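DM from R.C. (forwarded with permission)

"hey, sorry to bug you on a friday — could you get me a structure for this? deadline for the figure draft is monday and I only need the backbone to look sensible"
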Amino acid sequence: MAIIIPFPRERCRPAQPTPPGHKGKIIPFPRPAAAPAPVETPKAGMLRRERTPRTGKNVLIAKVKIAQKQLGMPDDVYRTMLWINFGVSSCTELDEQGLVRLVRHFRSKGWQDKPSMKKDRHGKPRCLKTGNHPGARVMARIGALLAELGNLRGDYVPWDYAAGILKKHTGLDHLEQATTQELNGVMVALERTLNSERRRI
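My reply, with the result:
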């Protein structure tokens, strides 16, 4: 398609003979821009819900809700208890340390939460049962420190935690592979962590 530009007749010259092999200049007509493709919106029921990251605070809030339900505590009694002991009307207003104290309060009322043992990849060292490891006593002390640390945090602290400390300092993967001196280093690191957790409360 070409654009025909009209001129006044008085300015037009008579047609001149076209030399052989000459081609006329054609001005192409601009094509309209293509319309953008319509954006498809997902139908109802097809929207994916974004999962809330499972942080330590979310785990503690879930425990509080479970404890309230298992103890049979009505909402009004629950909110009154929060206001008297913590000065808040909802557990979501508490920080992580406040939630730990709230979980501890429910435990004092008789609530017992089941530890999540599935998180423990290493598990309890076998030499604690047989006693054939020279550092068996130190391992028993490490187990007690892990349990105490779990009580402070309001969650189960697995043996993986101690194995991770050992791997960081010595490169060994399992506690059974460590010497008594290396196990003492793990015990000292756990005692420091425990004292730090106590100061935060």
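R.C.: lifesaver. Residues 45-54 have pLDDT under 50 and may be disordered.
me: no worries. The first helix runs from residue 56 to 70.
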